[in-house]
Structures are given as structure tokens and as C-alpha cells.
Design goal:
The chain is of the alpha/beta class and 241 residues long. The chain has one domain (2-238): 4-Layer Sandwich (Purple Acid Phosphatase, chain A, domain 2). The chain is built from nine helices and eleven strands. The chain has a six-stranded mixed β-sheet with strand order 3-4-5-9-6-7, with helices on one face. A five-stranded mixed β-sheet has the order 2-1-10-11-8. The protein is globular, with a radius of gyration of 17 Å.
């Protein structure tokens, strides 16, 4: 089975549509989203609607949580808070209601899917977790593989039962060790922060036991113009360039 995993679309419809086209050409059996479908970008409503139309299972991201929990929203930095409040004003009642139904994690196809860090954190950044924290996390969930997003950085964590190793992922296909356990951060579709501006997503092949990291080109300037025209903070546009 080939499963496409997307994360952190952040209202970037141009990037998401390019990824959807790439997924369509990649013989995919299922798609799962790790949340933050909304926020920062100019077309959160369009992205949220497409997620529902395609019946893509999604976990809750911290931006969805910020809409649901206004107390948590106060933890956002001023630019992120301003962006999310504007996003909320643009979302339909159907999209808002949908965000309220999202869960902090999903277990599907024998794997765990979470926005921040397993077992169920919506808000923990993977790059901030120590080796001790990683070892503790592996004790708290049973699945061999957990996929994460949130940090917008690609990373593979490998656990052989004793030792943890970490490495940055790139545009590549990685053979996973079936005897090991893994936490895999798949980067961001709509707002990469790793120095490469392509939209990124991953394909898990459960038969070959590989993870493929896909880099997809899209019209960045078209999204930039939309961000500025919609009145979002200019820094949201600069991050894409």
C-alpha cells in the first residue's frame, strides 16, 4: 500500500494543488494530513474545503487548536495570532465545525499520525525533543512508525531498541529497517522552513517499507500576491521566498 502524508499546508492552495497533482501521478492508495491545513496562507477556506471533499483524514494541528481553544491562541506570537484571527474570519461555518471534530492523533494502517510529537502532542516541536524525551515517547505508543509535522523540517528518527539516531531527510527514498521503530517528520506543503522552497510531502510504501520524500514545484509568487492582497502580515509572504 502506498500512503501519501501531507502536513502544514497553511492555506497555501497553490502548493496544495501542485501536491495533489503529484499525488495523482504517484499511484497512491490513501492520503492523510497531519494538520495545520489552515493559517498563514490566503486560502485556508479553499484548502479546508478540499480536504473535506477528498475525504482526507486529518489530525488537529496547533492552528486548528488555536481556533478551537482561544486560551491556547494567546500562546501564539503576535503575527501568528493576527494571521489566525484573520483566517478564522474567512472560514465558513462548515470549516469551523470540521476543525472542532479533529483529534490529536490517528492510528491507521498500523501507523501513528500526529501533528507535533507522539504519542499525541499537538504543540511539541520535534527538533526541541531531547534523546531522553524521544526514548520516553517510544515507551508511550505501540506502533513502529509515527509521522509528525509542525516543525516544517524533514527529519528521520531511528530507534533500534537501545539507541536513537537522527538525520535530516532530503529528496530521497529511504529503506526503513523493519526491526527498528521510527518517528518521521515530513516537512511542510505550504510553508517549508528548511531553506528549500518546494512543497514537500511523503509517500510511505508499506510493502517495500520505504519512505519517499517528494519535492514539488509550485507558483510561489502567485501565493505571495494572494497573501498581500488578502491583507495578511507581509512576513507570511517573505517566508515563502
Amino acid at each position: 500500500m502506498r500512503i501519501a502524508i501531507v502536513s502544514d499546508i497553511h492555506g497555501n492552495m497553490e502548493a496544495f494543488q501542485a501536491v495533489v497533482v503529484d499525488i495523482g501521478a504517484s499511484k497512491i492508495d490513501a492520503i492523510i494530513s497531519l494538520g495545520d491545513n489552515i493559517g498563514y496562507g490566503p486560502e485556508s477556506e479553499e484548502v479546508a474545503k478540499l480536504i473535506r471533499e477528498y475525504n482526507i483524514p486529518s489530525v488537529m494541528g496547533n492552528h486548528e487548536l488555536g481556533l478551537v481553544d482561544r486560551i491556547y491562541l494567546e500562546n501564539f506570537n503576535p503575527i501568528a495570532r493576527t494571521s489566525l484571527l484573520k483566517t478564522g474570519s474567512q472560514l465558513s461555518n462548515a470549516s469551523i465545525d470540521y476543525n472542532c471534530t479533529l483529534k490529536p492523533f490517528l492510528v491507521m494502517y498500523g501507523m501513528r499520525f500526529v501533528h507535533g510529537f507522539p504519542p499525541d502532542s499537538v504543540i511539541t516541536y520535534q527538533f526541541m525533543v531531547s534523546e531522553e524525551g524521544i526514548l520516553k515517547a517510544f515507551q508511550q505508543f505501540d506502533e513502529k512508525i509515527s509521522f509528525t509535522g509542525h516543525s516544517h523540517y524533514l527529519e528521520l528518527i531511528d530507534f533500534d531498541g537501545k539507541n536513537v539516531t537522527r538525520r535530516t531527510l532530503n529528496r530521497e527514498i529511504v529503506d526503513l529497517d523493519r526491526q527498528h521503530r521510527h518517528i518521521i517528520n515530513i516537512g511542510s506543503v505550504g510553508q517549508p522552513r528548511d531553506g528549500d522552497k518546494h512543497a514537500k510531502y511523503a509517500i510511505m510504501d508499506t510493502d517495500a517499507y520505504t519512505i519517499e520524500i517528494k519535492f514539488v514545484k509550485y507558483d510561489i509568487m502567485k501565493t505571495v500576491v494572494k497573501i498581500l492582497k488578502a491583507g495578511f502580515p507581509k512576513s507570511n509572504a517573505r517566508r515563502l521566498m
